[in-house]
Amino acid sequence: MCGIVGYIGARDSQAVLLDGLSKLEYRGYDSAGIAVFTQDGLRVSKAKGRLAVLAEKLEDAPLKGSVGIGHTRWATHGKPSDENSHPHTDKTMKFSVVHNGIIENYMELKEELIAQGVHFVSETDTEVISHLIAREYDGDIVKAVQRATEHMRGAFALGVLTEHEPDKLVAVRFASPLIIGIGEGENFIGSDIPAILQYTRRVYILNDGEMAVLTKDAVELMTIEGNFISREMIVVDWDVLTAEKGGYDHFMLKEIHEQPKAYRDTMRGRINEDRSGVKFPELKGLTPAKLSSIRNVHIVACGTAYHAGLVGRTLIEQCVGIPVETDVASEYRYRSPIITKDTLVIVVSQSGETADTLAALREAQRNGAHVLAITNVVGSSVAREADDSIVTWAGPEIAVASTKAYTSQLIAFMLFSLYWAQSTGSKDTAWIGQQLAAMESLPEQVERILEQADVLKDVAEGMAKHDNMFFIGRGLDYAVALEGSLKLKEISYIHSEAYAAGELKHGTLALIEDGIPVIALTTQPTLVEKMVSNIKEVKARGGVVYAVTDETNVAGVEKAVDGTFVLPATLPMLTPALAVVPLQLISYYASLARGNDVDKPRNLAKSVTVE
Ligand code: F6R
């Protein structure tokens, strides 16, 4: 969690840092701060709250200088406050540090430093880093940082400045993401690409245990031990607009509308022209022989990505006929899962940096499983550590609430299940071709759903007046109901529960009372009759039921409910890629109607890099 930026060059660094931080606020927004070399030395300005609070403070008292570091915080150690905001300094105020991650042994280090006479001003783990670097400094900042990191355990991406060497910016990566941007007469660091994209497209991605020493004209890369390394420079092909709102009121709305493109991009080049099958040339380890040897699958992920995994479970079981379990990553390790060399573990992560997912990946590899990653970020930790990876080409997702990353994960699961079915012969070419043809229609079908956003806005505004809601479904619809409910909760703050429709009467039906809104997903032809019975049970207790159904099933449903949204018809296995879209829009408009900050819901951050 947290976002860091750094700049060394000739521009007004305050402006560059504030701009970079504005692109990283999705990583946390409890406080923000910058440190800049000014005429009077290294100066820090920081403030609790959103970046706008800091920007206002800097308007009154700007920090002028062309070298600086900045930070946007998601609080872990110590409450959100001015004192706990980064950058942190040492007692001489000559060293300044921004940090993303957690120093696990910080209490031990803090006690040691206090015994040596250091006075701490914050409750953070990060402050120990600035004092440690100051203690280790003997005229060479690079060596001081290297020595300091030898004492630290945990995760850290660091940006470090010292007044003693004002022509250098030192960056370190260990288990928290960090990139280096290369400019002309200027260089940058950032937690993520959008932070620097306005200035340069040329980047180095640091690996764990690596550091960079930036001057305005050069970048030296080395290991934390000090061995120089060379790295291929990546030229990022995202445009600045892609990383900005592009005319929409919110990133979430923009990202919902980008889904047809995300579907097409994730399918592009992966479907044979004659639809005879799927190609995944990137899957070097998952050869047909390897796939044939797999006996069971574990899908592991968090939050929305976990919900994509629930859909993935059904897809793989239906296409390949082998047992699949789906686990929340934070629980996976603690149930001692039975993992063998014939287990395929699929980790799903938009960011590729989620700490629990990464820990599950490592546990699976330790136990001999083959790990496949489905991730949206090329070069992320998950992508690099997995044995194979499938990239979802959703593009940068900025809104905290995941939309296009989730649906791209569904597309990736659909393609992968078909690929596996074709590799092992569990389904014939005609059946696979039929699924692929239907998949190719999905982007245009999503466009048709998006054209009806106004209808959903009205529905959402009615629902926004309530404090409790339910989502029900069976089979794949239940997996989608879970995602719809999470989306609603996280941005509208309406309490909502998703229930397997048949399970409702085993307890939760007691909560249904007059007027309570219930969204019923009914897209599975074999389950419609049973769903209608469950809908009737809800209506008999006063629930107001809005059905999300499709052209195939609407006739059996519409008379039983109070309102319907009709999706275009597709094959039953593919319905999640359509059914979730109206639920995303309902959540968006309900959040808006309640006056919430849609893109930055309270208490949450985009990339959860702590366990
Ligand atoms: C909800 C949401 C989260 C993430 C979860 C995993 O809208 O975005 O539930 O899905 O934090 O994140 P990734 O996919 O980056 O591992």
Quick overview of this protein structure:
The chain is of the alpha/beta class and 611 residues long. Helix content is 36%, strand content 22%. Fructose -6-phosphate binds at residues 302-305, 349-351, 354, 357, 401-402, 490, 607-608.
Overview of the molecule:
The protein is about 35% helix and about 20% strand. α17 links the parallel β22 and β23 (about 545-550). α13 packs antiparallel against α14 (about 430-450), α14 (about 430-450) packs parallel to α19 (about 575-595) and α15 crosses α19 (about 575-595). Strands 3-2-4-1-10-9-11-14 form an 8-stranded antiparallel β-sheet, with helices on one face. It has 3 domains: about 5-245, Glutamine Phosphoribosylpyrophosphate, subunit 1, domain 1, CATH 3.60.20.10; about 250-450, Rossmann fold (3-Layer(aba) Sandwich), CATH 3.40.50; about 455-595, 3-Layer(aba) Sandwich (Rossmann fold). The protein is globular. The mean pLDDT is about 95. The protein contains 19 helices and 24 strands. By secondary structure, it is an alpha/beta fold. The site of fructose -6-phosphate has 14 residues, from α9.
